[in-house]
Amino acid sequence: MNLARKETFEGRGILIYLPPSYAKGENRYPVLYVHDGGYLFEDCANWLQHLIAIGSIPEVVYVGVETDNRNEEYTPWPAKALVEGRPDFGGKSPEYIAFLADRLKPHIDSRYRTLQSPEHTGIVGASFGGLVSLHAAYLRPDVFGAVGSLSGSYWYDGYLDYMREQPQPPRVRKLFMSVGDCEGIYKDNIQKWMVPNTIKARDLLLEQGLPAQSLKFVIDAGATHDSVFFIKQLPEAIRWFF
Questions:
Q1: 14 vs 64: CA distance, rounded Å
Q2: Taking the CB of residue 103, how many other CB atoms lie within 10 A of it?
Q3: pTM, to two decimals
Q4: Residue 185 in this model has a pLDDT that exceeds 80
Q5: Structural domain containing residue 19
Q6: Per the structure, how many domains does the chain have?
Q7: Angle, helix 227-241 to helix 45-53, in steps of 10 degrees
Q8: Is the pLDDT of residue 1 over 70?
Q9: 154 vs 156: CA distance, rounded Å
Q10: How wide is the angle at C-alpha 173 spanned by C-alphas 110 and 3, nearest 5°?
Q11: So what's the pLDDT on residue 149?
Q12: How far is CA 155 from CA 151, 158, 182, 194, in A?
């Protein structure tokens, strides 16, 4: 993979990787928007390039989007902090999702050779990044047709209730969800429900009519809530999406 550049868009850092063949022709490529600055692909770039070389994953344009405050931007509505003395959660993901869909995506599409339809546009993140990715599926399925929720924070206050209240599941083409079976086992707050709440979220989606062939669900044996396991799931999500 070739690092195209580190850009700034509307005051926010954007990290862009272009696939190996990008400079060699006029092909257009799917795009994957990645939360938390794109560490999910940046920290395993050599591995992804190897997987491309052996034909294990397709070539994709990756767009890493930085945030100054993930507790503000990746949460769907305000909620109290889990730890006394920490800032409360800000609940500004609708604004963040609108930024991605209505301003950043048109900018990327105007500068790079992208496939622009929802089926070729993915969004992925881990932890709160996984939560905001699913929320983007609810709010903007017209833009994001491939959604990756890696260890999504479905313990978040009221989120399962929000899902239950929806008349139908997100109208996305592909949804990838994963969780480690050891996540939350050392917690004594609501985060201890990481695994059962993720399973409940999956079951709700299927009960509401999400086609089984649109969902891939992975329980990663022995995995804790750590970036090494989030990154491990990224190629699986890419294969599923594209």
A1: 6
A2: 12
A3: 0.96
A4: yes
A5: 2-241
A6: 1
A7: 30
A8: no
A9: 5
A10: 40
A11: 98
A12: 11, 8, 15, 6
- pLDDT of residue 218 exceeding 90, the answer is yes
Does residue 2 register a pLDDT over 80? Answer: no
168, with CB counted inside 10 A (0-12, 13-18, 19+), is exposed
**Per-residue pLDDT tens digits for 16-38:** 999 999 999 899 999 999 999 99
Tokens 């969004």 map to which residue? 123
pLDDT tens across 106-123, in order?
A: 999 999 999 999 999 999
Burial status of residue 71 (CB atoms within 10 A of its CB: 0-12, 13-18, 19 or more) = middle
Question: 212 and 206 in contact (C-beta within 8 Å)?
Answer: yes
Query: The CATH number of the domain where 87 resides is what?
Result: 3.40.50.1820
In the block, tokens 């050599």 appear at 46
Contact between 223 and 181 (Cβ < 8 Å): yes
Which letter, b or e, does each residue of 182-215 get, where b requires 16 or more Cβ atoms within 10 Å of its Cβ?
Answer: bbbeeeeeebebbbebbbebbebbeeeebeeebb
Q: Distance from CA of residue 199 to its chain's centroid? A: 17
Task: Give the amino acid at 53.
Answer: A
Contact call for residues 40 and 125 (beta carbons, < 8 A): yes
Give me Rg for the CA atoms of the chain.
Answer: 17
